[in-house]
Specification:
With 188 residues, this protein is mainly α. The protein has one domain (2-185). The chain has six helices and no strands. It has helices at 2-55, 76-112, 117-137, 142-145, 150-159, 168-185. The longest helix has 54 residues, at 2-55. The relative contact order is 0.13. The mean pLDDT is 84.
Length: 188
């Protein structure tokens, strides 16, 4: 009789231990997914903020070169060089935010699954578009003032977002970030 009780206690102890290990594994997996989702959401917000700053149509005095001389009637050549300087610095900040986002996204994809990949690919096109538009207008930014072709017009539209964010491109970026957040909210 005592053998049966001891055997039963051993079986119950083993079953409880197995259940505990599986519960712990499930909790650890959910906790890791939560941490990755939070990290990716923070990184996405940084990227969104950098994109908004890159496309901002206002130019702040702190963005101008140190040796900039404020003229009453600036010419397109000198203003083009200033715009190139400003957008190059903005692009550097956007690239840094995107690199951080991309690194976090790779880590998150390993934990959160392959469903994340299409959302990330859409956002990677934002960075490619920004670089392409900047490279097309640099170094003189003459096309910013006097576009020669449709691409230069599109580049200026990319760089110069509407103040209210009402243009189609801004709405598209908002939709992409919203879709990413909707996906990440499942893990939060």
């Amino acid at each position: 009789m005592t053998d049966i009780i001891v055997s039963s206690a051993a079986i119950i102890t083993a079953a409880t231990a197995i259940y505990g290990v599986f519960s712990w594994k499930h909790e650890l997996k959910a906790q890791t997914a939560h941490k990755q989702a939070v990290a990716l959401k923070v990184s996405a917000r940084r990227l969104q903020k950098a994109l908004d700053a890159f496309r901002d149509d206002r130019f702040f005095p702190t963005e101008y070169p140190d040796n900039y001389i404020w003229a009453e009637a600036p010419d397109y050549i000198s203003e083009g060089k200033v715009l190139a300087y400003i957008y190059e610095n903005r692009l550097r900040k956007l690239s840094s935010a995107f690199d951080s986002f991309e690194q976090t996204a790779i880590e998150a994809e390993a934990v959160l699954g392959k469903e994340l990949r299409p959302l990330l690919e859409q956002l990677s096109m934002v960075h490619i578009s920004a670089e392409t538009c900047f490279r097309r207008l640099a170094p003189s930014f003459e096309g910013f003032f006097n576009p020669k072709d449709e691409f230069e017009v599109a580049a200026k539209q990319f760089l110069y977002a509407d103040k209210d964010g009402d243009d189609l491109r801004s709405k598209d970026y908002e939709r992409q970030f919203r879709n990413l957040e909707k996906f990440l909210n499942r893990f939060l």
